Amino acid sequence: MTESTKYPDYIQTLLDPAAYPHPVEAVELVQTHISFVLLAGDFVYKFKKPVNFGFLDFSTLEKRKQCCEQELILNRRLCPDIYLGLVRVTADNGTLVLDGRGEVVEYGVKMVRMPEDRMMGRIIERGELNRDHILSLVDVLVPFYERADRNAEIDGYGSAEAVAVNVLENFDQTREFIGGGALKPEQFDRISSYARSFLAREELFDARIEKGRIRDCHGDLYSANICLADKVYIYDCIEFNRRFRYCDVASDVAFLAMDLDFHGLQDLSALFIEEFCKKSGDDTLTGMLTFYACYRAYVRGKIGLFTAGDPAVDEKVKEKNLDMARRYFVLAEQYARQENG
User: What percent of the chain lies above the pLDDT cut of 70?
Assistant: First the structure.
């Protein structure tokens, strides 16, 4: 079996530059555990895999369409000029066509392709991320959270009980991977024990609700979803499950702080939190920071395991994701140790 035969028919079709109505020299396919992303000329086409992980359900065409529509609405909050619209793959007389007239076989999202050399991850790799970048991010994020929706329903997602659903679910979903090389039994025990002990401090979560810090956030705020070009672009928010997006602002910003720590940029991580708290007036965020950073690191480790287990990814991608998962679990354990002394 060749690598290409692992892909759905429509992806194999769209790997051909001639499939697009605009100039394309070559098509690059990037995969996550839930998406196929096609880089084609000046545009990006993102399609959702027909998976059901419980916390997300893309198992039917209609569900994938609805999530694509939500993705456009939500991401236009921060990137209105990047998210262009819904696209369809159609079957025209047995031939798969992008935005044709036949039966729809798949829906996707069309985006403007941002300059890859200005992606935050690339900037970090080159050792070029600096103080000015961090301050620019804060200047975008503070007003974003101030504008973000808040109501009684959203507030409910900030309670210890609601947060526990997300946190403890991760442990249930990774239990089968314990001892497989990326996640050690002692790491699992330490991290899960710390999380449960922190979740028992319900008054901390209640205080955040009282201060109005639970918002309709981004949900996936880290360097892979940020471009630092002519301005700051923060894209690819969580659209598939509101309980991952309705959260404490501390959980959102802890994700980016954790990501900076993961890349060995602890000074910039500290600067980010310091400046964010100063400009937002959030004087209790730091009390939640380690807990949410630990949670976010564990989530990234889980996703690495899921991606490595996807039969559609090749051996190189599998090994890379297993290594990243291992490193994220190490970091999560460090946060748990830090908090427990």
Answer: 98
CA 162, 245, 173, 302 dihedral sign is: negative
Average confidence (pLDDT) over 49-62:
92
Higher pLDDT, 6 or 226: 226
The residue with tokens 């975008």 is 140
Tokens encoding 56: 């997300």
pTM reported for the whole predicted model: 0.90
CA 180 to each of CA 175, 301, 309, 326, 327: distance values in angstroms, whole numbers, following the listed order: 10, 13, 12, 10, 14
Name the token pair of 99: 């935005």
In CATH terms, the fold of domain 3-113 is Phosphorylase Kinase; domain 1 (3.30.200)
Average pLDDT, the chain: 95
At 341 the pLDDT is: 52
Q: What does the domain layout of the chain look like in residue ranges? A: 3-113, 118-340
Length of the chain: 341
